[in-house]
Amino acid sequence: MQRLGFVAHELRNALHTAAISFQAIRSGRIPVQGTTGDVVERSHLRLRAMVDGLLTQVRLGAALRGRQERLSIASLVQESIAFATADAAEKKIQLLTEVDPSLQVEGDRNLLVSALTNLLQNAVKFTGRGGSVDIRSTRNGDGRVLVEIEDGCGGLPAGAAERMFGPFVQVGNDRSGLGLGLTIAQQVVDAHGGTIQVRDLPGRGCVFTVAIPAVQAAEDLAG
User: Fold this and answer.
1) Which among 179, 60, 171, 48 is positioned nearest to 114, based on CA atoms?
2) How far apart are CA 39 and CA 99, in angstroms?
3) What tens digit of pLDDT does each residue of 117-168 get?
4) Using the 8-state DSSP alphabet, how is residue 156 labeled?
């Protein structure tokens, strides 16, 4: 109930800000270009992010009731990259991939793409202009698929790793989001029997590692 109240409050604030800016533009006193137009755009993006978060919560409930299919990690990564490409291009950030096409997991496609997209967008957001974000996948000895996303954020603030997956927590200087992306990613991964961890690379960046139980490819079973 507390979370619902917070989201409702934030939705109202974003709508109010957008409405005031729109009225100023419509009156002809202020052009669409410039600060006021930027405020409307940011309000729209903020509203969309909140609605997307709520939809993910609904889909998560459906996934917990058993909606599963066999999925290629490579295809999930490619779909996630498509959502992060525009932001990366704006900052001239390279998205570098090293993904094993044979790796497969079982789960809900929309939710897993949402989780990886949140991690990728977070990595792009905090990587410096002209930097790079690396996406790698492997299979460990415990029968899990590992997806690693390494950014160039410069390293984590002290104590950030222990609290950054909490709802509405923001640990960087950029506070343009709501602090829900990492929480959603963790909930999705948990629902798929996996784990998500972050490792600090002081002075360089950090690595988010998603571990999800692997399933054998059909050709492996046949062999």
Assistant:
1) 60
2) 38
3) 889 988 998 899 999 999 999 999 889 999 999 999 988 777 665 656 555 4
4) P
